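Sample 3 of the quickstart, ligand zinc ion:
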Amino acid sequence: MRAVVYEGVGRVAVAEVADPELLLPDDAIVRVRLAAICGSDLHFLHGKAPLEPGEGIGHEAIGVVEAVGPDVRRFRVGDRVAVSFVIACGACWFCAHGQTQLCEDFRNLGAGIFGGGLGGAQAELLRVPHADVNLLALPQGLEDERAVFLGDVLATGVYAAGLGEVGPGDAVAVVGAGPVGFFAAQAARARGADPVLVLDRLPDRLALAERLGAEPVDVEARNPQMAVARRTGDRGADVVIEAVGHPSAFETALDVVRRGGRVVVVGMYAGEQVEAPLGVWWARALDVRFAGICPVHAWWERALEELLAGRIDPAPLVSHRLPLEEAPLGYELFASRRATKVLLVP
Ligand SMILES: NC(=O)c1ccc[n+]([C@@H]2O[C@H](COP(=O)([O-])OP(=O)(O)OC[C@H]3O[C@@H](n4cnc5c(N)ncnc54)[C@H](O)[C@@H]3O)[C@@H](O)[C@H]2O)c1
Ligand SMILES: [Zn+2]
Ligand SMILES: [Zn+2]
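Result:
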C-alpha cells in the first residue's frame, strides 16, 4: 500500500510499504478515506519527537472497516468509522474511569516506537488495535470532511470546554486559535458561553474565529489582560482555555482569568518550566486543570452530537485537500502556516 513515511528532519515521503495485517483477535483494518495533518505531526517532521526513517506518520483519519478479527463485536466490514488517535485498552482501571489517555497500555497512531510501534493514519490502510474501543461508528449523512476531526482535534476542543465546566453565560477566553482553539471556542459557545474571546496573533486565524461568532483579540496589538477585562466587567474570564502549549500562553491564561476562575491547559507541554508564584495563585483561588492528552473515547460521542446538531462546524478550518501522493506539499503548506488544515485523500 501507499503510506506517508518520515524520511528525516523536515522531510516526509509517500512510499510503498507492506499492508498492515490483523495481528490480534480484536484488531480491525481500516481503509482510510481521509486523513488530516495535525500540529503534532510537525513535532515528528521537525525531529522533536523520535521517528525512524521509513516509519508511518499521521493519526487523524476516518475510513471504512476492511477486515475484523474474530473478537471484534461492534463493527463489521463496510462500516464507516472514525479512528481515535489515542489507542487504549478499554479494560484497565483508567479506561474504566473514562481516562483512556492514562491507559496502562496507552499507545498512539503514527508515533513510532514511543507510540507503541503502530502504523500511521496517512496511509491507504491502518491497523487499529482493540477496535471495539478505538473506533466510532459514523452515521449516514455526515460528510467525511466533517467527521475526520472526531478522533483528535474536535474531541480535544469539546474535552477542553467540558473540563472547564463551561456553562451558559460564562465569559470564556481561548488562548490560541489553531485547530484546537477553533474547536474549543465552538464547544464553549455550544455550551452557552457568552462572550467567547479568542486570543492569537495571526490575523487569518483571528478572522476564522470571528466567523464562528467569537470575539478576536490580537495579542500583538492589544494587552490581553485589558482586552478581556473590558469585556468582563473588569473581572476577567470565568474560564480560560490555553490551547497553545507555550509558557507565554500559560502566563497569558493566568493573566486573563478572574479571581476564582478556571484555567484549562490543553496545549501540550514536555520539558518547559515556569516560575509558579504560589501565593498569588493561592490568594486568587485559581483552579488550574491540566488536560493531558485528550481521553478521546469519553468525548467523541458528545462531539458527534454537536456536529450533527450543527453547533460545531469544522468546514471553515479546511483550507486544502490533496491526494495522498502530495503529502510532502501538504506538510510544507501546513508547516509554513499557509494552510489551516490539510486533508489527504488516499
Ligand atoms: N491535549 C491534547 O490531547 C491535544 C490534542 C491536540 C493538540 N494538542 C496541543 O494543543 C496545542 C494547540 O494545537 P493546534 O493544533 O491548535 O496548534 P497550532 O500550533 O496550530 O495553534 C496554536 C496557535 O497559538 C497561537 N499562539 C502562539 N503563542 C501564542 C500566545 N502567546 N498567545 C496567543 N496565541 C498564541 C499561534 O499563533 C497559533 O495560531 C498544541 O500544543 C498541541 O500539541 C493537545
Ligand atoms: Zn493530532
Ligand atoms: Zn486501558
